[in-house]
C-alpha cells in the first residue's frame, strides 16, 4: 500500500504559479488514486496465477512398475507332497486351523515419540512418531517367557530406538518442506552511530522493518518437494517396522538356539556320564585280566572327546546369552541370566499351521517392500521437483518499516513497499537438460531396485517353503534312524558284556546313537527356525 501526503503551501501564497502543472481532475466514483503504477504488476500476477491452474498437469502420475507375480507358491506344493506333519494347513488355500482363524491374533506395540510441547501446532504434528503395532506372530511358539522378553525388547532395544529417531528426523524434514509453501515472515532492527573525525558533529540513525515473502507455487515444484519428503518419511517408518521384524526374529531364533544348546549340553552330560561308566567297567576288566590296555585307551579316548566337545556347547550358550543381553540393552556378562527362565530344551508340542497366502499379498505385508515403494515414489517426486525448478518462478515481497534519528520515532512515519520477482531459470538449457536427465535416471534406478526387492522377497518365501518341506520330509527317517541306533547299541552292549564282540564295536554303536540324537535335535531346531524365517519372509503372521 502507499501513503500520500498533501504538500503544504507556503504562507501568503494563494494562487497557482503560471507555469505550474494543472491540478489533477477529481477522482471518479470507484477510482483509487495511485493504483495505476500497480496495474502491470496486478496483470502479471493474474496471468501467472491462471497458469498455476496447470500445475497438476506438470506433475508426473505414479504407476506401480510391472511385476512378475506368480499366482501361487511352488514351495507350498512341495510341502503338501512331503506331508508337513506340523503344518497341516499347507498352503494358503487350505482351511485354516482354529488357532489361525477363530482366535484374533495377539498384538504387540512399538512405542512412539510424544510430540514437541513448545506450543507450535505444526511442530507438534511433525515431531510426533505414532506407536507401531505388530501382529505378535512369535506368540505361536507358546512360550510366555519369550513373549515377555520380546515385549521388553520392543521398548529397550537401541537399534529400534535409533530407527524411531530416524522416523522423527524424516517427519521433521517433511515439515520443513511443507513450510516452504507458507509465506515467510522476517523482521529487522538496526541502529547506527557516527562521528566526524574532526569531532564537530555526530549522527545517529535507527531503522526497523518487517517483511513477508511468498513464492507462488505455480507449477507444483514446492508441492513436489514436500511430497518427496513425505514419502521418504513413510519409507523411514516402514524401515522401523522392518527393523522390528528383524529384531524379533533374531530374538526368537536366539531363544530357540538357547533351548537347543541347553538340550545338547544335557545330552552331552548324559553321554559323558555313560562314557565314565564304560571306562570304569573296562578298567575293572583290565585289572581282572580279561581285556588289554588297548580297550582301556579306547574308552578313555571316547570320554576325552566327549568332554572336549562339551566345551563348544558351553561356549555357544554364553555367546547366545551375550547376544540376547545386547538386544535387551544390557551389558554382556553383567548378568549371566538376565531373564526369568531360560529354555532347557526345544518345544515339542505341535504348533499351529502357517498358511502362506498369495504372492501378491507380499506388497501389503512386508515392510521392506513398503519402504522400497515409498522411496520409489519419493524419487519420482524429487525428479518432478528438479524438472519444475526450471519453470518460471514468481515471488512477492511486502515490507513495512521506518527510520528515524530517535529510536522512539522509528515507526512514526512508516513506509510500505510491495515487490514482485520473476525468475526465468529455463534459459539455462544445458544445466536444465542435465538435471532433468539425472532425475529420470534416478527414478529408473529406483524402479529396478524395487523390482529386485520384490523378486528377492518372492525368493525368501519360496526358499522357506522349500526348506519346510525338506525338513519335514527328513524328520521321519531321522526318528527311525535313532530308534534303530538305540536298539543296536543295546544289543552290542549285551554282546560285549558276554564277550562276543570287541569294545570298539560297542563304542562305535554308542557314537552312532549319539550322532542320530544330534541329527534329530538339529532337525527339530531347523524346523522351528524355519517357522521364524517363513514369518519374516511373509512379513509377520502369515495369512493374517
From TrEMBL:
Residues 94-106 have a biased composition (Low complexity). GO terms for cellular component: plasma membrane. The chain crosses the membrane at residues 38-58. Pfam families: OEP (PF02321). It is a lipid-anchor. It is found in: Cell membrane. It comes from Derxia gummosa DSM 723. InterPro entries: MdtP/NodT-like (IPR010131), OMP_efflux (IPR003423). Belongs to the outer membrane factor (OMF) (TC 1.B.17) family. The keyword Membrane applies. The lineage of its organism: Bacteria, Pseudomonadati, Pseudomonadota, Betaproteobacteria, Burkholderiales. Keywords: Lipoprotein, Membrane, Palmitate, Transmembrane, Transmembrane beta strand, Transmembrane helix. This is Efflux transporter outer membrane subunit. Residues 1-31, 87-106 are annotated as: Disordered. PANTHER family: CATION EFFLUX SYSTEM PROTEIN CUSC, OUTER MEMBRANE CATION EFFLUX PROTEIN.
Amino acid at each position: 500500500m502507499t501513503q500520500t501526503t498533501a504538500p503544504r503551501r507556503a504562507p501568503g501564497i494563494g494562487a497557482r504559479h503560471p507555469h505550474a502543472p494543472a491540478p489533477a481532475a477529481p477522482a471518479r466514483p470507484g477510482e483509487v488514486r495511485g493504483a495505476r503504477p500497480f496495474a502491470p504488476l496486478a496483470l502479471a500476477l493474474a496471468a501467472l496465477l491462471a497458469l498455476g491452474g496447470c500445475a497438476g498437469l506438470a506433475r508426473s502420475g505414479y504407476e506401480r512398475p510391472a511385476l512378475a507375480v506368480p499366482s501361487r507358491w511352488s514351495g507350498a506344493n512341495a510341502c503338501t507332497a512331503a506331508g508337513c506333519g506340523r503344518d497341516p494347513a499347507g498352503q494358503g488355500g487350505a482351511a485354516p486351523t482354529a488357532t489361525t482363524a477363530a482366535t484374533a491374533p495377539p498384538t504387540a506395540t512399538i512405542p512412539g515419540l510424544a510430540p514437541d510441547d513448545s506450543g507450535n501446532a505444526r511442530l507438534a504434528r511433525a515431531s510426533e512418531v505414532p506407536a507401531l503395532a505388530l501382529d505378535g506372530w512369535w506368540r505361536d511358539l507358546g512360550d510366555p517367557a519369550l513373549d515377555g522378553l520380546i515385549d521388553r525388547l520392543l521398548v529397550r532395544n537401541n537399534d529400534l530406538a535409533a530407527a524411531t529417531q530416524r522416523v522423527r528426523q524424516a517427519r521433521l524434514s517433511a515439515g520443513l518442506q511443507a513450510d516452504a509453501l507458507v509465506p515467510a515472515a522476517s523482521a529487522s532492527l538496526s541502529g547506527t552511530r557516527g562521528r566526524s573525525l574532526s569531532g564537530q558533529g555526530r549522527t545517529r540513525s535507527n531503522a526497523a522493518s518487517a517483511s513477508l515473502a511468498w513464492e507462488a507455487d505455480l507449477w507444483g515444484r514446492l508441492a513436489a518437494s514436500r511430497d518427496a519428503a513425505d514419502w521418504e518419511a513413510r519409507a523411514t517408518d516402514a524401515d522401523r517396522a522392518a527393523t522390528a521384524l528383524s529384531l524379533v526374529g533374531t530374538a526368537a531364533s536366539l531363544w530357540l538356539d538357547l533351548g537347543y544348546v541347553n538340550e545338547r549340553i544335557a545330552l552331552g552330560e548324559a553321554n559323558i556320564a555313560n562314557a565314565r561308566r564304560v571306562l570304569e567297567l573296562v578298567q575293572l576288566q583290565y585289572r581282572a585280566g580279561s581285556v588289554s590296555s588297548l580297550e582301556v585307551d579306547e574308552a578313555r579316548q571316547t570320554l576325552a572327546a566327549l568332554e572336549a566337545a562339551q566345551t563348544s556347547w558351553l561356549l555357544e550358550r554364553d555367546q547366545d546369552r551375550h547376544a540376547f543381553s545386547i538386544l535387551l540393552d544390557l551389558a554382556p556378562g553383567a548378568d549371566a541370566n538376565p531373564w526369568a527362565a531360560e529354555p532347557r530344551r526345544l518345544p515339542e508340542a505341535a504348533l499351529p499351521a502357517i498358511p502362506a497366502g498369495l504372492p501378491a499379498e507380499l506388497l501389503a505385508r512386508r515392510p521392506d517392500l513398503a519402504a522400497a515403494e515409498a522411496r520409489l515414489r519419493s524419487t519420482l517426486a524429487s525428479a518432478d521437483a528438479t524438472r519444475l525448478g526450471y519453470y518460471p518462478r514468481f515471488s512477492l515481497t511486502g515490507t513495512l518499516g521506518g527510520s528515524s534519528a530517535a529510536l522512539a520515532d522509528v515507526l512514526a512515519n512508516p513506509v510500505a513497499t510491495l515487490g514482485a520477482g520473476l525468475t526465468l531459470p529455463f534459459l539455462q538449457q544445458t544445466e536444465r537438460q542435465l538435471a532433468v536427465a539425472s532425475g529420470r535416471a534416478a527414478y529408473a534406478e529406483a524402479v529396478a531396485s524395487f523390482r529386485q526387492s520384490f523378486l528377492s522377497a518372492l525368493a525368501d518365501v519360496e526358499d522357506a517353503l522349500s526348506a519346510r518341506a525338506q525338513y519335514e520330509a527328513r524328520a521321519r527317517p531321522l526318528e527311525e534312524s535313532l530308534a534303530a541306533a538305540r536298539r543296536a547299541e543295546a544289543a552290542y552292549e549285551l554282546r560285549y558284556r558276554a564277550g562276543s564282540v570287541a569294545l570298539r564295536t560297542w563304542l562305535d554303536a554308542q557314537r552312532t546313537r549319539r550322532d542320530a540324537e544330534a541329527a534329530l535335535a538339529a532337525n527339530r531346531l531347523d524346523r522351528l527356525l524355519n517357522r521364524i524365517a517363513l514369518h519374516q519372509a511373509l512379513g509377520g503372521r502369515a495369512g493374517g
